[in-house]
Description:
By secondary structure, the protein is an all-alpha fold. It folds into two domains: 23-94; 95-148, no CATH class. It has five helices and no strands. The longest helix is centred in the N-terminal third of the chain and has 27 residues, at 6-32. It is globular, with a radius of gyration of 18 Å.
Amino acid sequence: MALETLPLVIAALSGVAMAIQGSLNSALGKVIGLWETTFIVHLVGLLLVSALLFICRLGDGCWADYNHAPWYTYVGGILGVLIIYGVVLAMPKVGVAPATTAIILGQVFTAGLVDHFGLFGMQKIPFSLWNILGTLLMAGGAWLILKQ
Length: 148
């Protein structure tokens, strides 16, 4: 496997993990509730990353630099709560495949805007005709998956 494809493989595995996580979170949500599940998911994640940072010493950053990051970079935590809540709410109602399809379509559309405008300090990558056609094909595929 070429070194250039490794990040794509890792991204695809993240997608696999997201679909499984959404299913597990939704199952937990049926038992304990939506907000309670959102809390538990973040608490378990906090415990894991705390162990990785403070016990295993896996961090490579510098805590003292937290004030150098733009304020909006901290909104990710809020978005994480909204994402978990939204997934836990949606998956039991529409199913894992349709919800994941809608999630991916939203991600690709938003990612295209972030790339095109170079938002949040990301490299500016113009959205080409091929990107637009690919997104429209994905939207068509999503429509077919969502059509029941």
